[in-house]
Write a structure and sequence with these properties.
Radius of gyration of chain A: 22 Å
Distance between the termini of chain A: 43 Å
Shape of chain B: extended
Distance between the termini of chain B: 27 Å
Number of helices of chain B: 3
Strand order of the largest sheet of chain A: 1-2-3-4-5-6-7-8-9-10-11-13-14-17-19-20
CATH topology of chain A: Porin
CATH architecture of chain A: Beta Barrel
Order of helices and strands of chain B: HHHEE
Oligomer: heterodimer
Number of domains of chain A: 1
Largest sheet of chain B: 2 strands, antiparallel
Helix content of chain A: under 10%
CATH superfamily of chain A: monomeric porin ompg
Mean pLDDT of chain A: 88
Largest sheet of chain A: 16 strands, antiparallel, barrel
Order of helices and strands of chain A: HEEEEEEEEEHEEEEEEEEEEE
Radius of gyration of chain B: 21 Å
Structural class of chain A: mainly beta
Shape of chain A: globular
Low-confidence stretches of chain A: none
Low-confidence stretches of chain B: 14-33, 73-85, 122-145
């Protein structure tokens, strides 16, 4: 079911090999770019549950981008997160990414390929969450008419946990979409897709056995989604979009999967079916600045998780989130770009499991510099 | 599922109507002279609106920029030079760096580089959904909600 260790090694060497080749073979035509981001945040509920753990944290990230020729971008990236109260949650990420766009600007057909690898390592007390993520994507779009474009793509992602193999998963997906403009400046974008996940589930009978000997089985999860998005300007300085997403598990047999007490770090926190609707606004009313604001509601059914030793958590959430942000982009004639920003977030969540009844307020201040 | 099927059908009916009701892109149909509204990134603004200073704010939304430009244009009106003619087959893109050319290609594929559903749905709500905030991502400390 899983890609073997030797194949993973091969992928790793292949990616490194490609990087070395293009760094040394094409330097005459190449140019570089880099980006540094700094952010600091305060939240009254770091781990998104009823414990309401207050913390502040900072994120520093850097990326070096290399363009051996015009169709190719190589990106080496790193990120460090520091938490002032829950120090053990501090982590460092390193990764590489390659993006190839082989088609020309004048062609109505566009191809896009992307592959990447990330490694994230936590401090000792949270090292169970250390992960390696491999991902790839290929997509194609075609401009059918002046106001209509269609697209399709395939995605792949593999998540490996260094210290807890039971949480590993592999996801394949394909999607297609269409974008049309109608009646002047109204835009409708519809996207639909299907995903498959291979993972390890826990046999429910074995959880209740005494003495407990957990039996693992190979799981197979399928999910369908469709998401229409309507967008339009409201005057010359305000834009909006309204997005609805319907997700549904297919042939669902309600598996039990491994989880961890820190629910927000669970490998399954983002896997759910249900509905969501979100309204986003973008405004240029303050000169030289961009205001973004939005609100959304999600109705989620999450997978049943096993919290050791034998607690099975069944969870359905009503999640709502509101945010407002302000950014001040400052490009210079020399090609440098500086952008300070601030964002406020409010989250409310009610759940069938009272542990996950919570509300969160957070403030993030950031600074981006790139060249 | 029935609801989803109705949605898909309705979407494709609208799509077919708009696609076949409008003329396909041809070199001689004067498309370049008309500002065409396209919103692939979903921010509600026309992606094709010029942004001369690359500050991510369309020129049409910056009143002061337009008024400054008009003042400058009026001041230069009496001493205006004619544009250079006879560039012939000169390829302007040859003046751009690889990163600038790649940026243009990436702009063309902006709708292809992410998807809204699958098993990570919702993680890109807010700043990550095309209405962006730069340094502030939808993720906190390495975790995307």
């Amino acid at each position: 079911m899983y890609v073997t260790d030797s194949l993973m090694q091969l992928m790793r060497y292949l990616l490194i090999g490609i990087f070395i080749t293009v760094f040394f073979v094409f330097p005459a035509y190449a140019d570089f770019g880099y980006e540094v981001k700094l952010s600091g945040s305060v939240t009254n509920n770091l781990i998104s549950d009823s414990s309401e753990l207050y913390d502040s944290y900072s994120t520093t990230s850097a990326a070096l981008k290399y363009y051996p020729f015009a169709q190719l971008e190589l990106n080496l990236k790193s990120e460090y997160n520091y938490y002032s109260n829950l120090v053990g949650l501090g982590n460092i990420m390193g990764g590489a990414e390659i993006t190839w766009i082989p088609t020309s600007q004048s062609s109505p057909l566009a191809l896009y390929f992307n592959a990447g690898y990330d490694n994230r390592s936590y401090r000792e007390s949270f090292s169970v969450y250390n992960t390696n993520v491999y991902n790839g994507m290929g997509s194609i779009s075609y401009r059918l008419a002046r106001r209509a474009q269609v697209r399709a793509g395939i995605t792949y992602e593999q998540t490996e946990f260094d210290n807890s193999e039971g949480a590993d998963k592999e996801i394949y997906g394909f999607m297609f979409g269409a974008n049309v403009t109608f009646l002047g400046s109204n835009s409708l974008d519809i996207e639909s897709g299907y995903s498959f996940a291979d993972f390890i589930s826990v046999d429910e009978v074995s959880i209740m056995s005494w003495p407990q000997v957990l039996e693992e089985t190979d799981g197979d999860l399928k999910s369908f989604y469709i998401s229409p998005r309507y967008s339009r300007p409201l005057g010359s300085k305000l834009g909006m979009n309204l997005t609805y997403t319907y997700l549904s598990f297919v042939d669902f047999d309600d598996p039990v999967v491994y989880s961890y007490s820190t629910g927000f770090l669970s490998p399954w926190a983002s896997v759910w079916d249900g509905n969501s609707v979100a309204l986003n606004l973008k405004s240029y009313h303050i000169p030289k600045m961009i205001i973004t604001a939005g609100g959304g509601y999600w109705n989620k059914r999450l997978l049943r998780t096993l919290e050791l030793p034998d607690r099975i958590v069944t969870r359905e959430d009503d999640y709502s989130r509101y945010y407002i942000g302000l950014s001040w982009p400052m490009p210079s004639r020399s090609g440098a770009y500086l952008e300070p920003s601030i964002q406020l977030d409010i989250i409310n969540n009610t759940s069938t499991d009272r542990l996950y009844d919570y509300s969160t307020f957070s403030v993030v201040v950031g600074l981006t510099f790139r060249r | 599922m029935r609801f989803a099927a109705i949605l898909i059908s309705a979407a494709f009916m609208i799509f077919a109507f708009c696609s076949f009701g409008s003329s396909p892109l041809r070199a001689d149909d004067g498309a370049e002279s008309e500002e065409l509204f396209v919103d692939l990134d979903g921010d509600g603004f026309n992606d094709n609106t010029p942004d001369e200073d690359n500050n991510s704010i369309p020129d049409s939304a910056e009143d002061d920029k337009y008024s400054d430009r008009n003042k400058t244009a009026n001041a230069l009106a009496s001493t205006e030079f004619k544009p250079i003619e006879g560039l012939g087959e000169f390829d302007l893109s040859s003046l751009l760096s690889n990163s600038e050319l790649f940026g243009q290609l990436k702009f063309l594929t902006r709708a292809q580089s992410c998807c809204r559903g699958g098993f990570e749905a919702g993680s890109d709500f807010g700043p990550g959904n095309g209405i962006g905030l730069g340094a502030v991502s939808g993720c906190a400390g390495g975790v995307c909600h």
